[in-house]
């Protein structure tokens, strides 16, 4: 187990932990939450042995292997799949020793090392690494590219895959979802649920925490408090505790009245039944949990637009993409005041392309895009953080777009985004990603937009800022079009979804649970054996019946393939058993029979490789069969 007793941890002059206590048992999955700068990453460094406690005691089993997600990449020439395999240090050690033993013709060492390689699942390592990469959104072609050819966000995905590849008893993940889209997050959730070791996870994605962890460790006022359950359970427990404090009563009641008023207004005009009900439930949950965020440093809203046009934007028969590359076709989208639309779709399907076109960063390749006379767009995308002036302060950034406004008014406004005192006057150069994102949102909020185009607005934001953004979007009177991997934000701020897939933008008549099921179906239809025409999503009854018929036709060949693979695997097992019996003969290791031994070991190595390939293919075939069978049952 992990046991921290009376622990004190200090970095420079700042004391992060003082008299802290924590016990985590093997197999527990804990989310580590707390304000930025509270010491979460320093606690990870302590557990990894990179820091020593300044007082108290930190205990952990000495034989535990620790895996963690690195924040840097130093081997840019390595192929992506090899870089991920490097995460398994035992595998790499045995492989290096095997090469040396083969060069020295050391038969005894070869036999021992092949046994170690088998124990480390070395023969299936390449297939497992590729499965991790596929789950995190890498194509087969990308797996063979050099690490240096990827952008920073994709390199972080490689670091995550490398951490997952490492056999471990303790897995430490610091913001693993920051550079993932919703598809990859859903895959990672399933992977972590089945992880058998102890997991400590730092994340600002509340739905992700709820899905993965069974405990929450709250770092607050230099203490560690362990709560049972996921993040929502932590919120409820903390809300109950804070609600009992008299000094919180007034703010709690004001927040509750505000939420009740908004829910009443929203219920009166809700139109999209299923998604509207999902949003109402999310709002009612926010109302219940409002006291847990009484001490939030964030409190802001989007300033009301001076004028509004209807429609704000009208795109018809749009062909969107880049010169020489069409991404979306026949796009029809009208945005009117009050519209709340979330964009869903697989990675690379064109969600950002659509938003960039609406924001005028891209010109349509075809069709007609009409902009309202009084349209004012507030556009947020990650690349805009780099466009901030590194030498300018938050106050100067705001003064540049608010000429003539009183300085105190601007300081008060920036205070709602937690830029207070000297922080208002410091240059952006050394700001964190979260601080830059907050400043970009502050500039948008000041500009009185009537249409918000938000492309992953929660990246780098902590849980309190995400909640403040959610509340601000609920009060916003204009239109919102948002792409986000934060499911809580989507559930709380959107009324309807559009699905971007297979070159089209279509209505999605469902909620995020339906979308998760759609993704399973979509992925199964992306298998090489799937018919190309099965790639288009259809949600009406007729299309479901057609899909079920197609799936039934697909079952037969997959069943035959699985049976064939199982038979071949059985034959390989018999051959390996025969070789093992021959290799058990001690006389075989005499010098006179070294050539015979070398040949037998080579045959054994080749068969084990073949065994690993067949096992992976057989398991994949069984998974495909199971997925197809589930679809048949769902559509019957």
Walk me through this protein's architecture.
By secondary structure, this protein is of the alpha/beta class. It is 48% helix and 18% strand. The protein is built from 22 helices and 18 strands. It has a six-stranded mixed beta sheet, with helices on both faces. A hairpin with a 2-residue loop joins strand 10 and strand 11 (325-335). Mean pLDDT is 82; it is low at 529-539. Residues 548-582 form a coiled coil.
Q: Estimate the strand proportion.
A: 15-25%
Task: Please give the oligomerization state of what you see.
Answer: single chain
CATH superfamily of the largest domain: P-loop containing nucleotide triphosphate hydrolases
**According to CATH, what is the class of the largest domain?**
Alpha Beta
First and last CA, distance: 48 Å
Number of domains: 4
Largest sheet, described in full?
6 strands, mixed
Radius of gyration: 28 Å
What is the level-2 CATH architecture name of the largest domain? 3-Layer(aba) Sandwich
- The level of helicity is 40-55%
pLDDT averaged over residues = 82
Q: Which regions have little confidence, pLDDT < 50, spanning 5+ residues?
A: 529-539
Reported by name, the CATH topology of the largest domain is Rossmann fold
Q: Count up the helices.
A: 22
**What would you call the shape?**
globular
């Amino acid at each position: 187990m992990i046991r921290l007793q009376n622990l004190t941890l200090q970095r420079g002059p700042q004391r992060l932990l003082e008299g802290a206590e924590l016990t985590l048992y093997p197999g527990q999955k804990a989310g580590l939450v707390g304000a930025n700068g509270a010491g979460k990453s320093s606690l990870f460094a302590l557990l990894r042995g990179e820091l020593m406690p300044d007082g108290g005691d930190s205990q952990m089993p000495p034989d535990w292997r620790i895996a963690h997600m690195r924040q840097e990449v130093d081997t840019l020439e390595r192929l992506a799949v090899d870089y991920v395999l490097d995460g398994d240090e035992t595998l790499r050690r045995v492989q290096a020793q095997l090469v040396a033993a083969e060069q020295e013709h050391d038969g005894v060492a070869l036999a021992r090392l092949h046994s170690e390689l088998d124990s480390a699942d070395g023969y299936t390592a390449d297939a497992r690494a590729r499965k991790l990469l596929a789950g995190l959104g890498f194509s087969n072609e990308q797996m063979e590219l050099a690490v240096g050819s990827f952008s920073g966000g994709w390199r972080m995905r490689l670091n995550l895959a490398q951490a997952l590849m490492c056999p471990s008893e303790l897995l430490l993940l610091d913001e693993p979802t920051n550079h993932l889209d919703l598809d990859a997050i859903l895959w990672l959730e399933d992977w972590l649920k089945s992880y058998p070791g102890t997991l400590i996870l730092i994340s600002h994605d509340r739905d992700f925490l709820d899905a993965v962890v069974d405990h929450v460790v709250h770092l607050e006022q230099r203490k560690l408090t362990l709560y049972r359950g996921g993040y929502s359970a932590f919120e409820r427990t903390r809300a109950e505790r804070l609600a009992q404090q008299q000094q919180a009563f007034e703010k709690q009641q004001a927040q509750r009245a505000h939420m009740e008023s908004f829910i009443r207004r929203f219920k009166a005009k809700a139109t999209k039944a299923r998604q509207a009900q999902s949003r109402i439930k999310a709002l009612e949950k926010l109302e219940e949990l409002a006291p847990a965020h009484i001490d939030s440093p964030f409190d802001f809203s989007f300033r009301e637009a001076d004028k509004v046009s209807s429609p704000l934007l009208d795109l018809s028969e749009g062909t969107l993409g880049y010169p020489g590359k069409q991404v979306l076709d026949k796009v029809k989208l009208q945005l009117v005041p009050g519209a709340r639309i979330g964009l869903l779709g697989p990675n690379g399907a064109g969600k950002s392309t659509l938003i960039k076109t609406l924001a005028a960063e891209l010109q349509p390749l075809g069709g007609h895009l009409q902009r309202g006379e009084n349209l004012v767009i507030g556009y947020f995308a990650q690349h805009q953080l780099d466009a901030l002036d590194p030498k300018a302060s938050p106050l100067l950034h705001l003064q540049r777009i608010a000429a003539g406004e009183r300085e105190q008014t601007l300081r008060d406004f920036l205070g709602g985004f937690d830029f207070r005192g000297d922080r208002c006057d410091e240059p952006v150069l050394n700001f964190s990603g979260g601080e830059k994102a907050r400043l970009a949102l502050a500039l948008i909020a000041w500009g009185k937009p009537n249409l918000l185009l938000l492309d992953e607005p929660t990246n780098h934001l902590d849980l309190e800022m995400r909640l403040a953004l959610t509340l601000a979007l609920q009060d916003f009177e204009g239109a919102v079009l948002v792409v986000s991997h934060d499911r809580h934000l989507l559930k709380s701020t959107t009324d309807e979804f559009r699905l971007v897939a297979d070159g089209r933008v279509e209505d999605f008549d469902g909620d995020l649970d339906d979308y998760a099921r759609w993704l399973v179906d979509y992925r199964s239809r992306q298998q090489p054996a799937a018919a190309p025409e099965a790639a288009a999503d259809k949600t009406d009854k007729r299309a479901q019946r057609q899909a079920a018929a197609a799936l039934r036709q697909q079952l037969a060949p997959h069943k035959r393939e699985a049976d064939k693979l199982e038979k071949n695997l059985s034959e390989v097992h018999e051959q390996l058993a025969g070789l093992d019996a021959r290799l058990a003969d001690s006389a075989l290791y005499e010098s006179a029979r070294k050539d015979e031994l070398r040949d037998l070991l080579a045959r054994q190595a080749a068969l084990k490789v073949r065994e690993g390939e067949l096992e992976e293919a057989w398991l994949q075939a069984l998974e495909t069969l199971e997925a197809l069978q589930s679809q048949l049952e769902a559509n019957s």
